[in-house]
Design goal:
Blueprint lengths: L1 H34 L3 H14 L4 H13 L3 H14 L6 H13 L3 H14 L4 H13 L3 H14 L4 H11 L4 H14 L4 H14 L3 E3 L5 E3 L19 H12 L4 H4 L3 H19 L6 H15 L3 H8 L6 H9 L1 H13 L5
Antiparallel strand pairs: 1-2
């Protein structure tokens, strides 16, 4: 009896290993199809994987994501619920993201937020849950709550381009300096993409905001009233009014004769140096997420003399001849910049 039991155990173990191996192969094929945009083909592969290895968590998670991408939100929710029920003690971070995203697509906002929060309680350090919760708030025009979610995502992962992009977009209408800082950091994290080109244009517009030339010798500088400090001595959270005013003065000099002859990148460098110097000069007593997390990075960038390298990274896809020449001659400066940025201590 003991020999028969052992043989039976070995047979079952071998069959299970074969099933698991086959399932992994099918999941890999499904991921390739998903990455190519063939979501239905991917779903079919994951379904086959589940036929040979019932309740395989990776197959369930990937299937839920492909169902989401294919617009099959109800099915994605069903798969996600099943995965959570069957694997309560496994890593379900992405399952919660897929589950809540599907609810958000179905306009079931309150349910989606509940699932995001449930996931965050289990996995508080998973930045994607905070980010996607922020997207849910954004979709429902709850921008203040969305920004807080994106900020939490960045506290966990300072290199998350999506959160930087979202903050820049949401802040650019009324908080110019935080938007410039977010977009600038984005260009470092994600250079040479469609989004980076768009965000460089966003920065350029923000830098010249309120500046208008009226004739050869007349310049109008319009200051946003939201940027002006009140007479109170009480500091406000994320108050960049002084930096904003200094930037407006610096941008007004774009039309000065000596600056008019400079290249676009050179004027960008001039204005960005003004921003970073103003951040350093006015940081005492100021507080808030942007002062405590983004401002120190750019202040150190200035002190390390890396603003020039940053500017030419930002303009790398501009097509300007002077930008191309600089990159060819200054690879060592780019290496120094990226090494500094990579090793920067975000927890200071």
């Amino acid at each position: 009896m003991k020999l028969k039991t052992l043989l039976l155990f070995l047979f079952i173990s071998s069959a299970y290993a074969q099933n698991q191996s086959e399932a992994e192969k099918l999941i890999g094929e499904g991921v390739e199809l998903h990455d190519k945009g063939d979501y239905n083909g991917a779903i079919e592969k994951y379904s086959k994987a589940l036929e040979v290895d019932k309740d395989n968590l990776l197959a369930l998670s990937e299937k839920a994501m492909s169902l989401n991408s294919a617009g099959k939100y109800v099915e994605s929710i069903d798969v996600s619920k099943h995965a959570i029920l069957i694997h309560p003690n496994e890593d379900l971070k992405n399952v919660y993201v897929n589950y809540a995203n599907a609810l958000d697509h179905l306009k079931k906002t309150d349910e989606a937020l509940t699932i995001y929060q449930e996931g965050i309680q289990k996995y508080p350090n998973y930045y994607q849950l905070h980010f996607n919760k922020g997207i849910c708030y954004t979709n429902n025009n709850r921008y203040g709550e969305a920004i807080l979610c994106f900020q939490k995502a960045l506290l966990i992962n300072p290199k998350h381009a999506g959160s930087l992009n979202a903050i820049g977009i949401l802040e650019k209408g009324s908080h110019r300096i935080p938007a410039i800082l977010a977009f600038s950091r984005f260009l470092i994290v994600e250079p040479q993409t469609t989004r980076s080109k768009k965000n460089l244009e966003n920065i350029k517009k923000l830098l010249s905001q309120g500046i208008q030339q009226n004739g050869e010798k007349s310049i109008t500088i319009n200051i946003n009233s939201n940027m002006l400090s009140d007479s109170s001595d009480v500091k406000k959270e994320n108050d960049f009014s002084q930096v904003d005013l200094i930037l407006s003065m610096a941008s007004g000099l774009d039309f000065d004769k000596k600056n008019a002859k400079k290249t676009e990148v050179e004027n960008f460098i001039r204005k960005f140096e003004v921003i970073c110097s103003a951040l350093q000069e006015t940081k005492n007593g100021n507080f808030g997420f942007y002062w405590e997390n983004l401002a120190p990075y750019f202040i150190e960038m200035k002190n390390k003399k890396f603003i020039e390298a940053f500017a030419y990274i930002a303009y790398v896809d501009s097509g300007s001849e002077d930008v191309g020449k600089w990159h060819k001659k200054n690879q060592s400066e780019l290496d120094k910049f990226y090494n500094w940025s990579k090793d920067y201590n975000w927890k200071n």
